Amino acid sequence: MVVHQHRRRRGRPGEAVLAFGVAAAVAVMSGCGGAASGDDRPPADPAETVRAAADLLTKTGSAQVRTAMEMASGGTRVTIRGEGGVDFKNRMGQLLVMLPADAAGKDEHRPITELLVPGALYMKNRGAGVPDDKWVRVDTTTLADGNLVTGGATDPVAAAELLRGAQEVTYVGETEVGGAKVRHYRGTTDIARAARSASPQVKGALEAAAKGFGKDTVPFDVYLDEEGRMRKVRHRFTYVNNGVIDVSSTTLLYGFGTPVTVVLPASGDIYAGKIAE
For FRET with 85, which of 59, 112, 212, 249 sits at 20 to 30 Å CA-CA? Predict the structure, then answer.
């Protein structure tokens, strides 16, 4: 598959996943809650509590983040991990995404630096013919998955905004995440519904995802702390691309209030050529 920088065609979400080098990970085709106590009293409306999580993160401002995206097809799995920070107020973030070793057992690929901003994803060390000193810019509103899986990590802002479409939510119980007491909720979210309620900066990407995925319904587990802030969320996406591919995307937040600065590359540092798979 060949992708052109400003002329990316809309395809299936599976095609988007392979766009930046997750293809290398797919070739390999190779987290924090405890048991729920269930003794505490759940909120009167679990769904409303979950839907409010995105706004609470905006008020909080920023946080550090760890991500894990596991893809499974048939009997093979691959996990892509990331770490960085996100500014929920300005809807910006930066991640260092690590791909696993390839099928030949070579060392892990060089980490990919990703800058997440409203409407765009910037990637450095993307490989596939892109010079080492150049960035790749992708318009996330043109991606069939709205960058929910393309970058190898769900944008933490989008992960929170997806919860605006939460429905059929049940309260599982109380547990801990990263040493913090949290309440565990389980349910499904509707991508199109979330897009309608999303903040303007994220709306376009979620609208693209609502059109690109065959199913709008996405199961999730989310863990909220005593202030209602999202500490951990796991979304499970499914799409078809030469077979059924299941994606479990986990976002873990900690270090709330840690300053996050995102500096966008200069226009001359953005690669304008063809981007091969």
Answer: 212
